[in-house]
Amino acid sequence: MDEMDNLYLKVLQKNRMLTDGFHYTVPSADTYPYQWLWDSCFHAIILSHYKADDAKAEIFALLSKQLPNGMIPHMIYWKNSRKAAFPKIEWGKDGTSTITQPPMLAYAVWQIFKEDKDRKFLEQIYTHLYHFYKYLLNDRDPHEKHLIGIMNPDESGEDNSPRFDLPLGLPPKQTRDQSLKRRLELVTQNIECKFDAPFCMRNFFWVKDTAFNSIMVANLKLLAKIAAELKIDEDAIYFMKQAEDIAIAMREFMMDDGLFYSTYGKDYKKIKVKTWAIFTPLFAEILSREEATKLVTKHLFNKKEFWPKYPVPTTALDEPAFDPKGFWRGPTWIATNWFIYKGLMKYGLKEEAEEIKRSSLELIDKSGFREYFNPLTGEGLGAKNFTWGGLALDMD
Known about the structure:
Blueprint: H1 3-15, E1 16-19, E2 22-25, E3 35-36, H2 37-47, H3 52-63, E4 75-76, H4 105-116, H5 119-139, H6 165-168, H7 176-192, H8 197-203, E5 207-208, H9 210-229, H10 233-253, E6 255-256, E7 259-260, E8 263-264, E9 269-270, H11 280-283, H12 289-300, H13 334-346, H14 350-367, E10 372-373, E11 380-381
Antiparallel strand pairs: 1-2, 3-4, 5-8, 6-7, 8-9, 10-11
């Protein structure tokens, strides 16, 4: 175990919590003292390399608050805290939020299974997985176009990404408070419509997000593997077919001149803003080898777009919304780098992937385990002792 592993284990230890018999990890004990859905999936992926039982505990804590309709909340308020970077939001339900987050759960579960081959673990949680992904397939695709919709930007995991400016009616240059105010208005509206996803999306906010759908495709393929491992062949066939249908729909509704853009509204208008999300189809293996190579050459390694000194910025440098210190509007995040790294590796683009890994490790070495980083200077920004940095250790 090298020095960076040791440093990261100290971060994990500080951020591991025990409440009501459940072990879970918070992203930052000093800033984000709650449990988040895709954060916990990241934590489980990382923990699987150290201790599989801790990774499983992370998943069990997450699943303990699954809603009757199958949805898994994006936030669990295990205990009240005055340390949070933002006020505790009333979501219309006590103890959790009533929206979700990118469905990385099947990926995390399969990663744990690969490490210790514990089939009983898969058997214990399969029903939870089945109902979560069925909820997304049924409730979030009311027009049956095979694209999963989100009803709040926070469901993307990228709260105020410029991908959501247009449907929110916000300008490219904005303050974080402006975005938060608009998103809180959505929460109020969603409480009024009882978080009935089809109704809320139709009336208030309906984005079919590129990153969310790419993650869905990749995870449905793994859910099919889990079902096959459990010899539930009918489910395995079903979930693989759903993954294929979403990939086809993404090409039909999102693709424009080689790039996949998020869409909004009932008529699927494209949101033509270049963010890191244009690379997520690599993670889902939706592109051909030729398309992948062109995407990487033309955009990823373009110094005017996504290749500054410390890549990969979450918003392209030539976008009006780009802000090297703006939350999700320009800084480099280790998690988004991880998605791109994994995508490149799936296409055999190992040298390109190694560049992402090298830069990620350099950022951590320079500025520590920070929430995000200035892509121009490498300065660490946001929360300290932030757990997502451990994903750099999963780049292999």
